[in-house]
Amino acid sequence: MGKVIAVIPAAGQGSRMGSAVKKQYLRLVDKPVLRHTLDVIEQCSVIDGIILVVAPGEEAICQDMINQGHALSKIMAVVPGGNHRQTSVYYGLCALPEDTELALIHDGARPLVRPQEITSVIEVARDMGAAALAVQVKDTIKVVNQENIIVATPQRETLWAVQTPQVFRYPLIMQAHRQALDRGYYATDDCALVEALGVPVKLVPGSYENLKITTPEDLVLAEAFLKRRMQ
């Protein structure tokens, strides 16, 4: 089997957080959000390396954060991202070594993923070619028109909220990104790019604790979850 390399996009602006400090660098209990994320990836034995993608000009800041505390031996490179998440992920994928079998893509602002969840989605991706963590939605979802008038109510049992990690065979995800680049379209996650190739993506049940830090409320929840784990 080839290598499993993680691409961690952390180049976002985090405008919905309403903070002068970008969300990935905000303090979560004892260290920055991004450092929590990197620590979990580092501790996962099935991951061979990490490519960290940051905003251009923030490479030195991230390197300083990486050097604090215990060493992160799996980081292979810190590369500058682009002006869109999809572009940043693509730049990270381009930095992977040729002997990569699986590319794991995980949001830098998703610090509460557990190693066993990472392992489970890797195992499914190795078999299926493409897999992602997800949770079933709890609320009833409404589809609305431009005037916010409800036009449909999908069956809740068929709806899942996709998370990361999302794991793909390396040639497959590169093909998906290059097709998107050639055709000039963007998606909000990497699964959608693979779906555009007509390739099935298997969802793996994850945890509701694996939230993405996007708003101040998310940070409060993440702190509560993390403190409970530390008890």
Automatic annotation (TrEMBL):
Pathway: Isoprenoid biosynthesis; isopentenyl diphosphate biosynthesis via DXP pathway; isopentenyl diphosphate from 1-deoxy-D-xylulose 5-phosphate: step 2/6
GO molecular-function term, one example from the UniProt record: 2-C-methyl-D-erythritol 4-phosphate cytidylyltransferase activity
InterPro entries: IspD, IspD/TarI, IspD/TarI_cytidylyltransf_bact, Nucleotide-diphossugar_trans
The entry's keywords: Isoprene biosynthesis, Nucleotidyltransferase, Transferase
Site (Positions MEP for the nucleophilic attack): R156, K212
Catalytic activity line of the entry: 2-C-methyl-D-erythritol 4-phosphate + CTP + H(+) = 4-CDP-2-C-methyl-D-erythritol + diphosphate
EC number: 2.7.7.60
Pfam families associated with the record: IspD
Enzyme class: transferase
Annotated positions for site Transition state stabilizer: R16, K23
Gene3D superfamilies xref list: Spore Coat Polysaccharide Biosynthesis Protein SpsA, Chain A
Gene Ontology BP annotations: isopentenyl diphosphate biosynthetic process, methylerythritol 4-phosphate pathway
Residues in coiled coil: none
Similarity remark: Belongs to the IspD/TarI cytidylyltransferase family. IspD subfamily.
Main function: Catalyzes the formation of 4-diphosphocytidyl-2-C-methyl-D-erythritol from CTP and 2-C-methyl-D-erythritol 4-phosphate (MEP).
NCBIfam families: ispD
Stated name of the protein: 2-C-methyl-D-erythritol 4-phosphate cytidylyltransferase
Protein encoded by which gene: ispD
